[in-house]
Amino acid sequence: MHDDHKCNCEQPLVPGIVEVIDIKEETPDIKSFYVKNIDGQGVPFNVLPGQCAMISTPVGEGMFSCTWQEEQEWLQFAIKRVGLMTDDLHRIEVGQQLGIRGPYGNHFPIEESKGKDMLFIAGGIGLAPLRSFIKYCFKHREDYGKIQIIYGSRSYADLCFKDELFDLWPKEKDTEVFVTIDRPEEGWDGEVNFVPTYLEKLNPDPANKMAVTCGPPVMIKFVIQALEKMGYSDEQIITTLEMRMKCGIGKCGRCNIGSQYICLDGPVYNMVQLRQLPPEW
Amino acid sequence: MKILNKSKLEEVLNRLGENADVYVPMSKGLQSGFYPWKSLEGGKDELMLDALNVYQPPKSVVFPQTERMYSLYQEGKGLKIEETYENDEPRVIFGARACDIKGIICMDEVFLTGGYEESFYKARRESTTIVANACYEPGPSCFCAAMGVDPLNPEGADVIIRDTGDAYIWEALTEKGEALSSTIKDLLEEKELSVPEAKPFIQQVDYDGVAEKLKGMFEHPIWDRTSEACLNCGICTYICPSCYCFDIQVKMYGHEGYRFRCWDSCMYEEYTREAGGGNPRPTGRERFRNRFLHKLEFFTERYGHPLCTGCGRCIVVCPAGINITSIISEAKEADLDA
Amino acid sequence: MNDFTQQIQDIASRLLDNGQVDVFIAWHKGQQDFQVQPYFARSADEAQNIIFNDYSIHNLSNSLLKFRDSKEKIGIVVKGCDSRGIIRLLEDNQIQRERLYIVGICCPGMKDPLQAMRDELGFNHKPESTELAAKCNDCIQPNPVIYDELLGTEQSPRVQDRFARVKEIEAMSADERYQFFEETISRCIRCYACREVCVACDCRTCIFDEMRPQWVGRENNTTDNLMYHIVKASHMAGRCIECGECERVCPVNIPLMLLNQKVIKDVNELFGPYEAGMQYVEGQKPPFSMYEESDPDDFL
């Protein structure tokens, strides 16, 4: 890990302050927040794809995966409204200052995946963390082979990053994007399926491939089963784990699975590592 | 050797109290714990250096139950953190037993290693000097030696005192300990005393190989039965010298407030409840299992020794009579095919 | 007491053997005599581990809450005060009478295992153990009020002056009272043992665990602690069955029954005569689970 991708502060639990420079409504309950330092000079820290940050308002703190870092310009976090703190976040306006600390946790295997074909499988807000890896692959297009993205959500309205899904990404070199929704609806003539079933139907060849999946726990479970059935080895299957977090630095205790702290040692794991853990994820 | 005559003890504690907050084992009515020496009320409170141990461990001296971290000030769209509250006032823990100091060592590993040094703990810890009271007579619920603790030579002590009856042998072990000794050197005497004889442990506990064995016992039926009586209250975690889990919360009065941390307990349902309402440890059984596996397996995997120091407090306080030594022996004897 | 052990073992074996119950809740022995522990026997063989001795003080009716969502039939041993807990659970529809086989014991008074632990295990300067547990000296109902089978001979209540402690506090000036409660309640470490051990605390999601919104702060200070104890005591109104377990298990000796008894006294005076869990009448509700036009409201 590069040194500048690790929190180097003397007070790891005390946040720095950033300003929200843009807010984009992705879906009815997901908004993207773009933040940068309050002096207007750059980002509070550098983030690798898959790493997280603890964002705070006076209501609470929450751990969120960074959806994208645009050079030294801004950090983007796509955040779903699920609880007290995210309710508060969804009410703020551009110009609002927030607390932020991080970056936390490990990152997607950007090095190990070089030279491989990439298969990204996401459901709902699960595309937010994967997007950092997807965009990283596009940015370093020559380092990675063919890119396939399978993404689904409950309805068309619930699909995140629609402009990228339907316009930008399909135009990228050697890239396929497959989108599905859970239930049929008027105006949608695309796939109607759950993500794991759609994955099995598409049956992407495991040869020289890395499969990275993120989404609701039940989706992840069935995606992993499907991948195994299609012949993916444990080394080829990457996912992220979620537990409640408070400190972000492996101290407060609650995000453990076995002796692993998801905030510190995770959130990214491959199946080889996951099989070493107690079945609590 | 240096000795401290018990007749000079009060004077020593007063002297140490001139430069630091001195915490001593003390009874206050039915309560006992490490309380400030200055708070001792004659006729009511009693110093308990000669008791086996006190009810509340000295954990809160370095890791208080509630600790303010920083101020928050909101104005319009602005957010300011003007103050942080690291507390590095000098303090002395006087007369702690090896088990309790091992608890602090466990916390040192958690808070000060692993890539992040947590600044609030660090400030308190570095300004704390520990005077250990070597333990020659284990109580009926003691099993520190089985958990890798040496009651005679407490690890982590800056000074060790050894009770010989009328006087303590005083032995400074670290720079901090030397500095402390120098402030009371006129109250110490030079004299040869023989070290007391150590009595054997009453309770036999065999933790050997248990951490490794537990790796294969996550889904063992042992947890169904052992957890059945547990009420899922937090007494054991709050009274434990090594339990360190905490929560971070905020208190706002209008636009101003502060963020604080407070002890949390893995026994509570809320501890792992996610924002969306899901919970990976929904019932008492999973929480009970996680607590004991954390103590006996997970912590050992991460830091090389268990998160139990054998003080026996959780056995004493548990309303449901749960006994960690029974869990260790049940795990030791468990049939892995069960 | 040994008598009781044998009799309970026999009953448990019989019930488990003939399938009348799936689980039988009693006690078994720990490492020392005073370390008895609630025990859940599931076979006639396991019933042989059951023990009843001076230290079988725990109110087991609370354990029934672990079974409220199951269909298992349950045998359970209760003393006088504990049996009132069962009535509370029946009134709150937490368990069904036909799932229970209740073995009542006319209680001669118990010793406190926690007190014995502190004395015997070296955590006390001076021994505190008394002949009977403090709560048993305040006993108003030693004989079970609901049972299928009764063991022992009827005992007399041991309480001398039921509300003596309450009256002492009532006699204080407001300032004295505040000081008293500030001092005792600031000791609270918020371990929630008083809640977990309480049979009347049968809410599925407790207000203190609720985070949206968070009703009570988690700081360990007088304000948040007082909030916890005042809210808890109010929720006990008409529900506390005076088993005294909360006060017994409190690791910092907060006189919790003082608060509960004050509320009991007030409920009795305002809405009474009323004693929680004294008598099971199907469909009957405690005073604060219903409304009557004649309810006093001048305190509003």
Task: Tell me the layout of helices and strands.
The complex is a heterotrimer of chains A (281), B (338) and C (300).
Chain A: E1 16-27, E2 30-37, E3 52-57, E4 60-65, E5 68-70, E6 74-80, H1 84-91, E7 97-104, E8 117-123, H2 127-139, E9 147-153, H3 162-168, E10 175-181, E11 191-192, H4 195-202, E12 209-214, H5 217-229, E13 237-240, E14 256-257, E15 260-261, E16 268-270, H6 271-274
Parallel strand pairs in A: 8-9, 8-12, 9-10, 10-11, 12-13
Antiparallel strand pairs in A: 1-2, 1-7, 2-6, 3-4, 3-7, 5-6, 13-16, 14-15
Helix pairs in contact in A: 4-5
Chain B: E1 2-5, H1 9-19, E2 21-28, E3 31-36, E4 45-47, H2 59-62, E5 66-75, E6 78-80, E7 91-96, H3 98-112, H4 119-126, E8 128-133, E9 159-163, E10 167-172, H5 175-183, E11 189-190, H6 210-214, H7 222-226, H8 235-239, E12 246-253, E13 256-263, H9 284-303, H10 313-317, H11 324-333
Parallel strand pairs in B: 2-7, 7-8, 8-9
Antiparallel strand pairs in B: 1-10, 1-11, 2-3, 2-4, 5-6, 5-13, 9-10, 12-13
Chain C: H1 2-17, E1 23-28, E2 37-41, H2 44-47, E3 74-78, H3 80-91, E4 100-105, H4 113-120, H5 134-137, E5 149-151, H6 164-170, H7 174-185, H8 193-196, H9 222-235, H10 245-249, H11 256-271
Parallel strand pairs in C: 1-3, 3-4, 4-5
Antiparallel strand pairs in C: 1-2
Helix pairs in contact in C: 9-11
Question: Can you summarize the main beta sheet of chain B?
Answer: 9 strands, mixed
Span between termini of chain A: 25 Å
Give the averaged pLDDT of chain B, no decimals.
95
SSE pattern of chain B, N- to C-terminal: EHEEEHEEEHHEEEHEHHHEEHHH
| Unreliably modeled segments of chain A | 1-6
Kindly name the structural category of chain B: alpha+beta
What do we call the CATH topology of the largest domain in chain A? Answer: Rossmann fold
**Percentage of residues assigned to helices of chain B:** 25-40%
Number of strands of chain A: 16
User: How many domains in all of chain A?
Assistant: 2
Q: Pairing-aware structural class of the strands and helices of chain A?
A: alpha/beta
The helix tally of chain B amounts to: 11
Work out the radius of gyration of chain A: 18 Å
Shape of chain B: globular
Largest sheet composition of chain A: 7 strands, antiparallel
Biggest interface and residues each: A-B, 48 and 53 residues
Mean pLDDT figure of chain A: 94
Radius of gyration of chain B: 22 Å
